[in-house]
Design goal:
The protein contains 3 helices and 8 strands, in the order βαβββαβαβββ. The protein is an alpha+beta fold and about 140 residues long. The structure holds carboxymethyldethia coenzyme *A (CMX) and cobalt (II) ion. This is Methylmalonyl-CoA epimerase.
């Protein structure tokens, strides 16, 4: 079951400049920053609100680490903007299986490492109404 919106992923060219925009415009602040080599990104999570299942909702600002990053390819094609939508679930394996059972392609056979040590998978944008969709299982599910 999908229980919430976990985050909206936003592609940017300059992480510091993007963070500064969200700080001065909306008063959001950085909750967490990390580099994820496997995903090819330098990222910042800006926490927006808590949710009733104990999780939170974030904006995920994503700067490419190198030219082969999926974010670099996206920026080249589309410029800065919304890159993906991520839904939270208590069980990413079961949720991926349920969704692929409806005919939607998952990008990975097994979940991979996401922000905060979460487990993630992606659903192909061409099967999801044009939206790259991420499934996220938080490391500790409250
Ligand atoms: N949103 C919507 N559509 C997208 C898209 C996106 N973010 N990225 C690509 N597409 C579209 C392309 O425009 C293309 O459409 P057309 O065929 O109509 O031109 C189609 O998908 C396939 O494009 P492609 O060139 O074959 O594939 P790409 O090399 O662009 O790869 C994808 C697309 C989704 C497989 C790749 O970006 C990927 O593996 N993403 C998952 C990992 C990721 O995005 N990591 C960064 C975020 C990490 C995090 O959230 O923690
Ligand atoms: Co994400």
């Amino acid at each position: 079951m999908i229980t919430r919106v976990d985050h909206i992923g936003i592609a940017c060219r300059d992480l510091a400049a993007s963070i500064a925009f969200y700080e001065r415009t909306y008063g959001f602040s950085v909750f967490h920053q990390e580099v994820n080599e496997q995903q090819g990104v330098k990222e910042a999570m800006l926490r927006i609100n808590g949710t009733d299942d104990g999780g939170s909702t974030y904006l995920q600002l994503l700067e490419p680490l190198h030219a082969e990053s999926p974010i670099a390819k996206f920026l080249e094609r589309n410029g800065e903007g919304v890159h993906h939508v991520a839904f939270g679930t208590a069980d990413v394996v079961a949720e991926t299986e349920a969704i692929t059972g409806t005919g939607v392609r998952a990008l990975y056979e097994q979940p991979r490492h996401g922000t905060f040590g979460s487990s993630i998978n992606f659903l192909h944008p061409k099967d999801c109404q044009g939206i790259l969709t991420e499934l996220v299982q938080s490391p500790v599910h409250e």
